[in-house]
Amino acid sequence: MELRRISSYHRTMRALDIQHIGSELAILWADGGENFFPLEKLRRACPCAGCSGEVDILGNVYKNPDKVLATAAFELRRFVPVGGYAVQLFWGDGHNSGIFAFDYLKRLAAA
């Protein structure tokens, strides 16, 4: 049996704990870092095809028309882990199709 080393990428991209605290989502990473994401920022950065769009082979972006988000759109109702690489957020207005990959969240925190 061969033992494989876990890459540093997988060590840093693993979430040890995720908590909904007030108007933020807090994540404690395996590398010891932590990030606090304002819920409004997360909702406006939703990576789903309807919110962020999809790109066809010619580079055209297709997405839903922009809409004004009501207060409920920024209320986090619950979240569930997706494998060991992401979290799915369920919002007060019923939206839940965004899968927030941990590498995407790290980039979002740095922005």
Describe this structure in words.
The protein is an alpha+beta fold and 111 residues long. The protein has a single domain (8-110), classed as NE0471 N-terminal domain-like. It has helices at 8-12, 39-44, 49-52, 102-110, and strands spanning 15-21, 24-29, 34-38, 54-55, 61-62, 76-82, 86-91, 99-101. The strands form three sheets. A three-stranded antiparallel sheet has the order 1-2-3. The chain has a three-stranded antiparallel sheet with strand order 6-7-8. The protein is globular and about 40 Å long. Mean pLDDT is 88; it is low at 1-9.
In short:
With 111 residues, the chain is an alpha+beta fold. The protein contains 4 helices and 8 strands.
User: What are the segments in which pLDDT stays under 50 over at least 5 consecutive residues?
Assistant: 1-9
Share in helix = 10-25%
CATH topology group: NE0471 N-terminal domain-like
Number of strands: 8
End-to-end separation in angstroms reads 42 Å
Q: What is the residue-averaged pLDDT?
A: 88
What topology does this entry show?
Blueprint (H helix, E strand, L loop, with lengths): L7 H5 L2 E7 L2 E6 L4 E5 H6 L4 H4 L1 E2 L5 E2 L13 E7 L3 E6 L7 E3 H9 L1
